[in-house]
Write a structure and sequence with these properties.
about 475 residues; alpha/beta; TIM Barrel; Ribosomal Protein S5, domain 2; 2 domains; 7-stranded parallel beta sheet; 5-stranded mixed beta sheet
Length: about 475
Amino acid sequence: MGNRFAPKGVMPALVTPFTKDGDIIEESYKAIIDYTIDKGATGVVPAGTTGEFVYMRTEERKKLLRLTVEFVDGRGPIIAGTGQNSTDATIALTKYAADIGCDAALVISPFYLRPSDKGYYEHYESVATRSDLPIILYNIPQCTLGVINSPVVEDLAELDNIVGIKDSSGSIGHTVELIQKLDGKIPVIIGHDECFLSAVSAGAKAAILASANVIPHIWLQIMEHIHDGHIDEAMKLQHRAQTFARIVTRNGGAPPVKAALKMLGLKAGKSRMPLDSGGTLSVELKDEIRLELERLGLLDDPPSPPVDSSISIETILSDEGFSLGADVKFGSGVADMVSVSIAIGSKNGELGRAFVRLLTTPKVGQEALTVILEPNLAVRPSSIMLPTRAITSMRQASLFYGPVQSGAAKALSEFLENGRIPEESIRNDVAILAIDIDLQSHLRREVTAQAKQAVLGALSEVWRE
């Protein structure tokens, strides 16, 4: 071929928005295409794995490809997903994609009935030589149950119409092997979001990713940093995007991507059964997706009142009907993101009764929890912690009963290890910690560190040296 198609940049493996009855929502599909192109996507890939092609009839795939050509309207290349189990069916759909103006075809290897290496070669050779569209091989063994081995790919790379291979194996070793062996022949396109940094650093020329429906601009920034030699900056961005990439790749691709797009205001529709079932995405996972979109700057952090630096455990317990004696000791500590007020007293006194009641009759949204270092390892003296502002979501609960608990436990453990807690108090006392934090924070490590700092400050007031 005179001018071989050259895949480049970052392209979304487009989701297909469906109604609850399974119809394609055309306006939503157009809006998603517009969004990705506006974010810098260098092309689009319809009817791929993330597009749920396996749930679509051939005529529906044709309709989707026609819509893509119409909606893209020359703004970038279209790599049509045309792979089928049958070689003849793949050739027919690839010819159709060429006729309507697609720029290349992404051809998944035959699945369900796995061919031999010779079968893979002859399948792709037939598609490449009997259709006019540039062909990109597609290796995704976790779905096809078969790997296109590198010797087969090397042989196929000699054919004029084979212009690349998308590797979605998730095995960076296999990806780098392909990059090494195909150097100067055809480009390798990384298709596994979690491996993006490693693959592009090793020489992958482009990417087709499910998460690029949402964050193509971030992947492009990483790619630019790598090409400019700014590996540290690329690494930082990959780390920021890694959790979202992991959620996408390990939860079916389309459902978490559609959930994220909906949070961004795009009507991404439903997936088709059986992918779209009631338990596909838990409430907790949706909370995590929203948190990651906030971390990536795609959603504004919800408004949150400032941390109250004047909280008083004495007042809180008094409001609950407890009259604490003179033997109870109090302390408070404040950090930028955490405020704590602590009461320590005899487990046989009024504070001990408050300790038991808070554990056994919790207030909804402000449940008290034992402070532990790790499962089945409670701190000494026995301690519980309760939030001063109501927790209303699993995301907030995981922040408070995770990083905050960890920071509080580390502070108590450090005080004990340094011999700053009297032996009598270790044996006979209990501690109650009232803690206020910004429940919308997504800086979990920082929350842990500041919780430790604040609790250390409070303990220092209780046991002054």
